[in-house]
Structure formats: structure tokens, C-alpha cells
Amino acid sequence: MGIENIVVWVIIGITALVSFKGFDNVYFFRKYDFHIGSIRAGEQHRMFTSAFLHVDPVHLIFNMYTLYIFAPMVLGGLGVINFLIIYFASLICGNLLTLYIHKNDLYYRAIGASGAVMGIIYSAVLLDPDEIIYLFFFLPMPLYVFGLGYLIYSIYGMRAKADNIGHTAHFGGAIGGLVFTLCKRPELFQTQTLVIGLLIVPIVILFFMARSGKI
């Protein structure tokens, strides 16, 4: 097993262990989830630890399976160090955006590796937008279509507020993955101009929704 596979499996393993601990221990879950009131009171560790918790096994499996599928494209295109930087930078960017948008909602809670995984998705889309994946194992679609659809679903999730999944973090993570990948591969501005424009659209929509108070 190469170092690239080891890195991905270590992230998946740690996330799974922490998540299952949270499934069985409400105190543990509440101590490390993303909670605006607690973060503003000084518990900044929640900005990081919340990404290793998940709502339930389905949420965990979906995020980790998505990471497993997209990680090889980023590892192959940018290497292990840059992969790790994108993953953890997107994690923090996602939670920073969540904190900014929901800063006045002291009871707001969220968990999940969504921001970090979204950063990897966006990076992979930029590196190889026409790569075909199979949604639900049978529905083929290009990477850029999946990336756009995932963010559009996140807009719905943010407005519905029907779960504790960190939908807002998807956007912060997407921004992190987009910016860092373009910094490392500036030639993509010329070779993937249309794809970059398409990926920015949902982020712009989010910005105007936030400005108008619709989320």
C-alpha cells in the first residue's frame, strides 16, 4: 500500500472512530461539535473537532466514500502534502464561513467532514472535470456536474435546516479547494476557464442569499 492510500485510510479511520464514539456518547458529541455559542465563548477547538463527528452511520459513510473516490485524483495531480493542505484548509475554511454566516445564532450546531471533503471534490473537478463517476453506482456523470449538484443540494439543506449537517461548510470548503488548487496550478485559469466559472456560480448565489438574509 502506497503512502497516498495510507494517508486516505488514516483520515477515514480516525474520522470513523471519533464518529462512532459520538454515536454512543452524547456528552462526547456535544463537547466537540460545532456550536456557535461555545465557540464564541472560547472553545475554538470545536472548529476542528466537529469535522470528525457525523450525524449517523449513513452520513459518515457518504462523506468517507466520497473522499475515497475523489482523493486519488488530487493525490495524483498535486501530491500528498498538497492533498493534506487542501483537506485541512478546506475544513477550516468551511467552519469559518459557517461561523461568519451564523454568528448571531448562538444555538446553531453542525458537524461533519463536509467542508474538507468538498474542498477535495472541487480540487478534483478542477484537475479533471470530465472524469466520469457513477452516482449510486449506476448513474454516470462528469465530475463538474456532481460538484455543482452537491453545492446546489447544500443550498437547499441550509435553507431547510432540518438536520445538524454542516451544509454551510460545503461552500467554505469549496472556496478553499478552489483557491488552493488554482494557486498550485495557475494554468487552470486558461485551460479550465468555463469550469471555474460554473463552479463559482453557486458560491455567488450563496453570497447574495446571505446578504439578503435568506439563509
TrEMBL record:
Instruction: For this entry, list what GO says about its biological process.
Output: proteolysis
| Annotated TM spans | 6-29, 106-126, 132-153, 165-182, 188-210
Q: How does it sit in the membrane?
A: Multi-pass membrane protein
A GO cellular-component term linked to this record: membrane
Record's subcellular location: Membrane
Q: Does the keyword Mitochondrion apply?
A: no
One Pfam entry for this protein is Rhomboid
Q: Which residues form a coiled coil?
A: none
Q: Does the keyword Zinc-finger apply?
A: no
**This protein's UniProt keywords:** Hydrolase, Membrane, Protease, Transmembrane, Transmembrane helix
Q: Which GO terms describe its molecular function?
A: serine-type endopeptidase activity
Family to which this protein belongs: Belongs to the peptidase S54 family.
> Which PANTHER family does the annotation name?
PRESENILIN-ASSOCIATED RHOMBOID-LIKE PROTEIN, MITOCHONDRIAL, RHOMBOID PROTEASE
- Name of this chain's protein: Rhomboid family intramembrane serine protease
